[in-house]
Specification:
The protein contains nine helices and seven strands, in the order βααβαβααββαββααα. By secondary structure, the chain is α/β, with parallel strands linked by helices. A hairpin with a 4-residue loop joins strand 4 (103-106) and strand 5 (111-112). It is elongated, with a radius of gyration of 24 Å.
Length: 230
């Protein structure tokens, strides 16, 4: 069977824990070879949460389109939570594939995800129940993590996330980054001399004082200086 393969990863942590795009790709390739299927197209979403709708997930949109246009006979992914985090969204996406006469394979859920059968209501109930409990488990994990972060923050600890420019995380605590702190001081000096935010950004670029990503823009300089961009 000709299939489109969909892979997704939302965070760097998932890559480190073995759920990265390459790991998903290898699992699908091995399964397809063993089952005699052919992957005719690969699509993916990197750094995008499964809670996002299809309108923000280009890879998922392309996978569904391949089935709807009959360039592929079905879609395969490593698990239903790669498809969507919420049970209701999973059901909606599955319905779109089935409406296009496509077949769905979820490797972590026993292989083919069978269509609803009016003569077998338990099939639908079991699938949806699994989705509900998977969603509940993720919610409980988020709740525990949020509680832990609140307790750590109350004790003055670093709770994660990207540190503000000028700082870096070291062994669970924030420490000043000397190079970035120097960039902040230089930006303040330039701004104090009467330069506009855009001029400050250009000057920092010329001095090879680069942001962590992208380029300096008036808004990023404003955030650096904690002023209002205009």
């Amino acid at each position: 069977m000709k299939l489109v393969a969909y892979i997704r990863v939302s965070t760097e942590n998932q890559v480190r824990e073995g759920f990265g795009l390459d790991a998903q790709r290898a699992e699908i390739v091995a399964w397809a070879k063993a089952e005699g299927h052919r992957i005719v197209q690969w699509t993916g979403d990197e750094g995008i949460s499964g809670a996002n709708g299809i309108d923000t997930r280009q890879g998922l949109y392309e996978a569904l389109l391949a089935v709807q246009q009959h360039r592929a006979q079905g879609i395969v992914f490593t698990s239903l939570d790669r498809l969507a985090r919420r049970m209701t969204e999973q059901e909606g996406i599955l319905g779109e594939v089935w409406a296009a006469d496509g077949t769905v394979y979820s490797l972590g859920d026993g292989g083919e995800v069978l269509q609803d059968d009016p003569d077998d209501p338990m099939r639908t109930a079991i699938r949806q129940t699994r989705g509900v409990f998977a969603q509940l488990e993720r919610g409980l994990i988020r709740q525990r993590m949020a509680k832990g972060k609140r307790e750590k923050a109350a004790q003055g600890g670093y709770v994660g996330g990207a540190p503000a420019f000028g700082y870096r995380a070291e062994h669970g605590v924030l420490a000043e980054d000397s190079a970035e702190q120097a960039t902040i001081e230089r930006a303040r000096e330039l701004r104090g001399s009467g330069m506009s935010l855009r001029q400050v950004g250009s000057a920092l670029t010329l001095e090879n004082r680069n942001p962590r990503r992208g380029a300096w823009h008036p808004t990023s300089v404003a955030r650096l200086l904690k002023v209002t961009a205009s």
